[in-house]
Batch of 4 targets.
Target 1
Amino acid sequence: MESYILFFIIAVATILSPGPGVILTLTNAIRYGTSGAIGGILGIAFGTFIVAGVSATSLGVILATSAVAFSIMKYIGAAYLIYLGIKLWRSPTKQVEASLGGTKNRKLQFAEGLTLQLTNPKAVFFFMSIFPQFVNYNSNFVGQFFLLVVTYSGLVIIIHALYAHLAKSARGWLSSEKGGRMVNRVGGGTFMCFGVGLASASK
């Protein structure tokens, strides 16, 4: 825990790196505005919290040591990413909306963000490889681990909210039918590429 600052820097760099979660946040922000991306961001953060917890349990060890368990999670995650990509690609082309309307949409986006994070086996490997190096097992292990998990999940919310705010500036030149189609195609295609990449990944 003496290296907490180093952990903080690694966490920031990792979360800033483009990935499925970032693409989901950017797509939602461009289509619905900053407030419209909040549901997905909270889903990703909560999923991160759960995955980090799993990585500290025997379930994480099973996923790390069992090729079958890893493959099952990998293909489920890949299928979900490809599903999101096809769904976005085929979404009706419409002008970018000013804001997200309706509680149902936010709940749906929360579920998408949560599922996105829970079906990514690479997240478990990340936490299993990073967290132990910043924990002193001769003292309160649970308290230290909880601090790291809360820090990481909190950074997910802050950084993704920043991404959403920055993406809002692109809504002006995307507020046309052509712009809406481009958002659908680029976002959908990126999700599908991530899905194919995950399906072909090894431990």
Target 2
Amino acid sequence: MSRINLSDEEWARILANLKKLTGIRIGQPDTCRQFISACLWILRSGAQWRILPPTQGKWNSIFKRFSRWCANGAWEKLLSHFSEVADLQDVSMDGSVIRAHACAAGAANSSAENEALGRSKGGFGCKVHALCDALGMPIKYILTGGQEAECKRAIPLLENVNASAVLADKAYDTNELREWLECRG
């Protein structure tokens, strides 16, 4: 798999699933493929939208379409679809803090709760609680404020996941989680 471009096989799998989603306009398949490639470029590089190379398309158009798909839940539906074939021999989970600039919250019709932002010892930011399969591929994630403890999101992450083993660090070491896992074998 190229880390830059989608292979024809990957695109065929994504396109087949996109056609099943309601409220998503695909338009020309080649244009949609370029859009998804541009989104993946941003996600892989961590760059700002304005830095998107012109060969990927107009950054503002890509950003607006990305935002519409976020609001529509298209990305979550895609993740859910591809998570169905996850390798559940074991799963691993962890949390990661993402720092936010002080002006990140404050846009019109927005709040720190809606943006999953909060204040922790380290400053202003959010936390991503992620669950991955045996191959390290993401299955589920939850966004919370930066002050949220990992152990509080363990059970919601593991619900409806039938894995043989759970790998987690000491941030998840609670009696409640141990008992919950023992009840489910």
Target 3
Amino acid sequence: MTVDLAPLWLTARLATVTTLILLAVGVPLAGWIAHSRSRFKPVFETLIAMPLVLPPSVLGFYLLMALSPARSLGAWLHARLGVDLVFSFPGLVAGSVLFSLPFMVQPLQAALTNLPDSLREAAYTLGKSRPATFWQVELPCVRPALVAGTVMAFAHTVGEFGLVLMLGGNIPGVTRVASIAIYNEVEALNYGAAHLYAAILCSFSFAVVLAVHLLRRRTKGGA
């Protein structure tokens, strides 16, 4: 039994691009939330955490409505930037970033919050600025949380279905990722191919969860 590898490669590409963007956006965002004393902090935390409880199809539906060329935002992106995010790979990336954001931000935020204040104060005493303290002192101390967040964000993107189907559709080579390919094979009663796709994703999921547990165990053992 052989299957089309294109959905698997597209899934890996989507997860890789999404994770890189989440590293660039999620790390400083987690640092800001961890240290912020703004009264609006609970609002930001709630907005970031909403994808954890919100059905993916709901987020996908609202993104589809917002980014459609028939809507204001979608029309502006098309007219000004020449970008169409609906039913496209960049659109999947945008949706995946929003949907996987809490998996990157929350572990890192929790680890940064638990760091002692004396660590930052010592860095300030030595003349380090706030940004330098965050990147050179705090972030290395929470490396296990950063690694765990990165791995979980990547894995979560791999497993997306509802958002991908709603926002990207089912275009071969463009938006048909592995989870959509499984759905297609089941609809076609091609259970052998569906089993193969599913087995690959199950093996990947097991490896990811095992890696996170081993990382946490190693961290506790070294504490």
Target 4
Amino acid sequence: MRGRRRTFRIELVIFLAASLLAATAAGGALLIGARVLQGVGASMVVPMTLAVVDALHTGTRRTVAFAVWSSVIGGMAAFGPLLGGWVVTDFAWRWAFW
């Protein structure tokens, strides 16, 4: 198995490259493909962040770290669509991927 840092970097590069591809997509098929790749990258990044939190903290600090992690994820799940809607409304849909 690879180290956490290397694995996280690879996952992050996949997600960011897919975001760049989606932002510059010339057609619907490329946009859908980029979004699929973005989903694959995100499906690897998010669990890795949780694994890192688990590995770095013990005892009560772990409980607090999990609470902070959960709060951030929950907040972004609520805030992300609002921010995305504003970006698409005031700018253009491509800006949501930048």
